[in-house]
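User:
I would dearly like some help making sense of a protein record. Take your time, and here it is.
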Amino acid sequence: MTTAVQPTRQYAVGSLVHARGREWVVLPDSTPDLLVLRPLGGADDAIAGVLPGLETVVPATFAPPTPSDLGDQQAAGLLRTALRIGFRSGAGPFRSLASIAVDPRPYQLVPLLMALRQDTVRLLIADDVGIGKTVEAGLIAAELLAQGDARGLVVLCSPALAEQWRAELYGKFGVDARLVLPSTIGRLERETPYGQSVFRPDGAYVVSTDFIKSPRHREDFLRNCPDLVIVDEAHSCVSDTTVGASARSSQQRYALLRALADRTDRHLLLVTATPHSGKEEPFRRLIGLLDDRLAAVPLDTDAGRRLLAEFFVQRRRADIREDFQDGAHFPSSRDTAETAYTLHRDYKKLLDEVLSYARETVRAADGALQQRQRWWSTLALLRTLSSSPAAAVQSLNTRAGVEEADTPAEADRTGERTVSDPADSETPESADAVPGTRLPTATGATATGTEATTTEADAEADDEEKARLVAMAESAKKLYGPTRDAKLKKLITTVSDLLDEGYRPIVFCRYIATADYVADHLKKILNKKGTEHPVAVASVTGELSPDQRVTRIAELTGTDEEGNPAPERRVLVATDCLSEGVNLQESFDAVLHYDLAWNPTRHEQREGRVDRFGQRTDVVKALTLYGADNPVDGIVLNVLLRKHERIRRVTGISVPVPQESESAMQAVFEGLILRGERSPYEQEGLFAQEDVAEQLEIAWQSSAEREKRYRSRYAQLTIKKDEVAAEVDEIRAALGTGEEVRDFTRRALGALRGMPAATKQGGFTAHTDALPQGLRDTVSHALGPRHPRPVVFHDAPSAPRGEAALTRTDPVVAAVARFVLDAALDDAGKVPEWQRPARRCGVVRTKAVERNTTLLLVRHRFQLNLPARDGSVREQLAEDARVVAYRGRPDDPEWLPEDEAVALLDARATQNTDPKFATENIAEILAALPAIMPGLRNQSAELGRTLEASHRRVRTASRARLAGLKVVPQGDPDILGVYHYRPAPTFPQGEGA
């Protein structure tokens, strides 16, 4: 038996067809032989392919409402908003805006406009910590994917941030990326057919940079890498590290990025808040990935800066603060302060002894190499003792990293990396180990590399030095606890004060040993017997894997196994493994620097964990703890931190420490340790002159002033934010305003037995237990099985985990809209009456009209012809919903202005309408709908012209291609709702009534 092949026909993008017992919309990429279809009113995950030659496919029309589906004007408003919230293929010029779960601020669209100017997108996004670089990169990626200019996506990042990136891509941009990590590669390879790569050019991945850079995986990745690459914390891939394993790792990272950038048609987004470490060479390597010319062009010329401006976007917090005047959660200010303490006499005695030991051991060095080794080992001891007695004890019992150095220069490079905080060092994720102090004594190598002869005097000196180190370690152990450790005592008092003020602080420490020491004492003292308000304390350090860090934070800030909320009084103690990339603003709002970083940028990164978009506390706090009589703290404060803050306040610009900072710090420390005495092994340039700190400040100030002048030439400043905001507002209005979404969600949940109750913060709570089963399951999936009950809905663009934000893109709001729309479009008999809060027609008697007026809820479909970067024109489907109204008869309508039509949604019924009359009346209106269709077609054409003009404005602003741009209505508009308003009769009043 043979099956006759049906003749095929061409269906336009956006047209309706009937197949498999339901209606579908034809999508782009369809051919006469294969139709790519999406269910009418369905989501993209229900897309199917249908072969017209084997299955019955016929043209279809959207079914009009029926007279039995009567409701009131509130039902009309619910249906309209549910439809608009559900749009995922909006018709506006930003194609991805309808399908992402984030409401971008106007400034966040500026990098997107810059990207649209380029044939191949190459951008360095270097905005300040906490103002949304991830969202900006995600917007560009979503738009490139939505327009078809990119087929796939890969994010290269630290393994510690991989899960966060995956969650951001999925939750905010609808991109379901696969994690490629050492812990997942085995499973991925088992799931991949034999002989094929884990990677596909059209796939989406979040990949550990350190994992994929290895020779075993690198070549396969490069062959199959998607055409859009985002590199997070890109500065770590060009760091100026030239020692041992770190040098190899940095070189491999850069080689990977260089190979990716060498393919000229690959889109590349580099993301970092610290693009310039103060050293020119790493910065040149970074921007050279975007365009080869940038590796050498003079940046102190107009031509050089203009070239850089095409690829570089950087805004400071002050630049964008005005965009948060609408109540969005972004701190209005950061309250910073220094908190001093005075060392206990025993602690001071040990510090003086260490300084004396440092002076003696450096001066007694046998050759330049040993001198540099001793210099760095004693500096490590000074820094660890300034941190905590626990760190000092560990340092005294650990071999110094500089021991392996073969030359003085190599000793300096190793020391800078392990003891100092150089601005161009690799990610601090694993840089919190305590540096060692112990070195071989007189039996070591001489300056020429030959073996020294061990004498009896050498052995005696060796034993004496070891005994001295052991004695210092024993002295340090006696300093444990707040009795002799004044720094810890001050911390406890300061943390207690912050908790009493309602703050939830993060305490940042330099070393793992210090973090554990601090956390242990905070737990004991803040929760001692009889404490009225216990405090939850946890520590997160580089000893934990990335997954373990996430789990530890979730245990501190999330609900417990019984669903109880996290304690409000909580403290997180962390090392700098959490100072980059990790978002902690939902659970913490204060930072306390227990240890001073030897790099001001690190303080900015720490404070950026809480001072960022999404922070609900208006004023965040940042406190710096320091020893008033600790000379090490004094040097760091005076030479670096206070100068950095002073320059930032004067110029309004935060610039990295100049390259001279490392030599300046060494010079000042050498002055402290050697008391101005010159070593017999002093080499030229080894010890800086006394004015080196002053020279550093001059260079720093000059750099800030120069940067301030150059910023006026950055390309982002040529894009008018007001114009961008106008386009965004127009798109948002078409998709549903914030007020409309808030009112819809509250009304819909009330009708669906969610019992919404107002909160003091302006939102409301709703119970999910009585919701319809399908909606209840969807909400639970979106919030997590252990979400707080009742569900909290925040009147804000963002919400903490397990709660909802009253925005159209929030997963819970979208689920409510989807349920309301589906229930309204289903046959009335299939769904219980109470589960259908929206209805497709109604008759209302009201004083809001003086003549019979009919309101229509109309859905338009358009085919967008969008010029692509390669010169072709891509077809895409778009939808738009509008409310229109007319007075009089359908065959001679008097169309109302749009604002008058929308106002009818708020019209109140002033008199009951007899159900039988309402049914007969609406039946007459529905029967006459064909007469109104010519007017609706004209409105589709006019709306198409308006949308095309909007696309042209955005493309003109971004200098994108215009040839071939066209917006074409597809088929007749769908009439989803019909609502007839009749004047309420006016009864005579007074004596003659």
Summary: The first helix runs from residue 73 to 86. DSSP finds 30 helices and 29 strands in the chain. Residues 1-5, 442-452, 676-690 have pLDDT under 50 and may be disordered. The first strand starts at residue 16 and ends at 19.
